[in-house]
């Protein structure tokens, strides 16, 4: 049920060239070309790059990132201009994911509407989480290798979805690690804490900025051992697994965002059953 589509490092050489340039081997891509994937890439410093016509943020070394939604279309165009004016582009073709779908019929259709005070809190939580993922720091951590934030079996995967009485529910966007309350959670890559708060749905929640708009989020923590603004190095403890918020049991729900885009954390780390 756990899938890794392809290799983690893809070196792209001459594929498609426009204008006068013949050599496009300056493009380095690191990532799996599939739906839900974060791609880390580099061009010579001073280049400009666009994905499907949208300009991407680049750091001083010419490094940049981009991502593909859970149900992204399969053809995309990366185009760039080098400091010497040379222009190139390349078509990126994604593999299609096959997500876990579970149909549950005959459910008692009881709609539970939370009281106004709770709704207010839920709205405030989502504004705060959006703010925590709005930073555009150019931390280099996002370009390093990621490690799993906790030991334990995978009990939930990115993209999975339940169809309740024929109605598709919101897909699951995290990867769940099932482990007892008190199990250490560590930083999968270095970063800065942009949120450490108790939220209605996700309980004790930490958001970690890895740079270039890429964030880890850790949900349902039993305890948080870091605070807003703390800088963490890879492997440093940030809290412990728990079941806070609306969780059915102790587990870590780890998410990866590129700002508002929800990506698959499992594609960033070595495979695990
Ligand atoms: Zn989850």
UniProtKB/TrEMBL annotation:
Domain M23ase beta-sheet core: 171-265
Entry superkingdom: Bacteria
MF (Gene Ontology): metalloendopeptidase activity
A Pfam family recorded for this sequence: Peptidase_M23
Entry's transmembrane regions: none
Protein name according to UniProt: M23 family metallopeptidase
Provenance organism: Salinimonas marina
